[in-house]
Amino acid sequence: MTLRRRLMLVTTLIVGTVVVAAAGACYLVIRGELRGQVDLALTSQGVLLDRSGGRGPGGMRDRVPELGARQGGPAPYVTVLSAGGRVFVYRGDAALPTSERDLRVAAGNAPAGMSDRRVAGLHLRTLAAPLPGGGAVIIGRSLADVDRTLERLRLVLAVLCLAGIALAALLGRRTADRFVAVLDRLERSQAAQRQLVADASHELRTPVTALRTNTEILLDEPDLPPAQRRALLADVVDQTEELSALVADLIELARGDQPADAVEDVRLDELVAEAVERARRHATHVFFAVELDRVAVDGVPERLGRAVNNLLDNAAKYSPPGATVEVRLRGGELTVRDHGPGVPPEELAQIFDRFFRATNARDRPGSGLGLAIVKQVADRHGGSVRAATAEGGGLAVTLSLPGARAVEQIPAPAG
Ligand SMILES: Nc1ncnc2c1ncn2[C@@H]1O[C@H](COP(=O)(O)OP(=O)(O)O)[C@@H](O)[C@H]1O
Ligand SMILES: [Mg+2]
After folding, report:
1. Domain of 123?
2. Measured from the CA of 367, which atom of ligand 1 is nearest?
3. What is the mean predicted confidence (pLDDT) over 48-71?
4. Who's near 140: CB < 8 A, 6+ residues apart?
5. Does the residue 197 lie in any domain?
6. Which of 244, 246, 314, 386, when mutated, tests ligand 1's pocket best, judged by the most ligand atoms within 8 Å of its CB?
7. This model's pTM is above 0.90
8. Domain with 312 in it: what CATH number?
C-alpha cells in the first residue's frame, strides 16, 4: 500500500471511529433517558401497589390498581399472580406471560424486578413486584413510542455517521495529498543536495590534486632554478584562486537550495547598472553598451545581483579584446549579448547544467557553475533563462523575470 493510501486510511479510520463512538454514546444516553422514564412510571406504580396491601386471593380483583396521570398514566397491562403462581386477573389485551422469576417473586423468594417482554407482538417494559399479602403483580407499559423514537434516532445517527465518515475520507485524502507533496519536495531537495555534494567532491579533487602536486615539488626540490620556482608558485596562486571561486560558487548553489530569502521590491535597472560598473572595473578589455528600461520586480537583490554578475562575467570572459558587450533590459527581460565565439549549437542546451563547460571553453578558467547559478536564481524567482547564438555570432543569454513593473520617471521640477 502506498504511503498516501495508508495515511488516508488511518485518518478516515480515526475520524470515523470518533464519529461512530460519539453517535453510539449519544444513542445510548437518549435510549437510557427514554426507557428510564418508562421505568420511573412503572416504579411509582409498583410503590403505589405495595401500599394498597393484600387481603388474600379473593380480594385480589379489587387490588388491580387504578393508576392516574401522577403515576405516568394508567398502565394498560396488569396481571396479578397468586402466591402459587396462578394468574388471577389481568387487564389489557392478554395476561402477561409469566417467567420463572415472576413465580419466585409471587412466592416471596425474589425482590421486584424490571424486564422486557412481548405480548401479542407488542414490546412491553414490565415490573414484577411482590404483593404484601403474598402473590405478585406484573405491570406492563408499551415501549412502542420509545422504540419508534429510537428507530428514528438510529436512522438520523446512521446518516450522520455516514456523512461524517465520507467527510473524514475527503479530509484524509487532502491531508495525505498535502503530506505526500511535502515529503516529495523534501526528497527532491535532498536528492539535489546529495547530487551537488557528489558532483562537487569530484570537481574539487582535480584542482586540489594539482595544488598538492605543485606544493610537493616546491617542498621536495629546494634547488629548482628561480624561473621554474616562480612559474610553479604562480600556478599555485592560480589554482588557489580557481579553487576559492569554485567553493564560492558551490556555496552560492547550496544557498539557493535553502528556503526562500526575503523578497523585496527591486529596481532591476539600478541593480544591472551597478553590476555593469563592477564588470567595467574587472574587464578592461571590453566595452559595455547599456540600454535599460526603468523597471522594478519582486526579488532577492543579492541573488539577482549574483545572476547578473555571472552573465556579465561570461560575456567579458569569452569576448575578444576590444569587443562590445550589449546589455539590454526591456520589461522583465535582461539580455546580455557578446561578440565572442558563442557555444556550439549542439551544446547550447547543456550550458545551464552544473559543471558543464562547452568544448571550446575548456582552456579557459571556470567552474561551469556560473550559469547553473543563473538558472537557479531564475527558477527561484518564477522566471526563466535561455541562450541563443546571436545574429552575426556571439552568445545572447536572456534572463526573464515575471511581474516586472515600469517605474515612472519623476519629472525634474521646472525652473
Ligand atoms: N558568453 C559566452 N560565450 C561563449 N560561451 C559561453 C558564454 N557563457 C557561457 N558559455 C559556455 O557555457 C559554459 C557554462 O558557463 P558557466 O556556467 O558560466 O561556466 P564557466 O564560465 O565557469 O565556464 C561555459 O563553460 C561556456 O562553455
Ligand atoms: Mg561563468
Report:
1. 3-150
2. 22
3. 52
4. 75, 76, 77, 78, 79, 92, 96, 117, 119, 124, 125, 126, 127
5. no
6. 314
7. no
8. 3.30.565.10
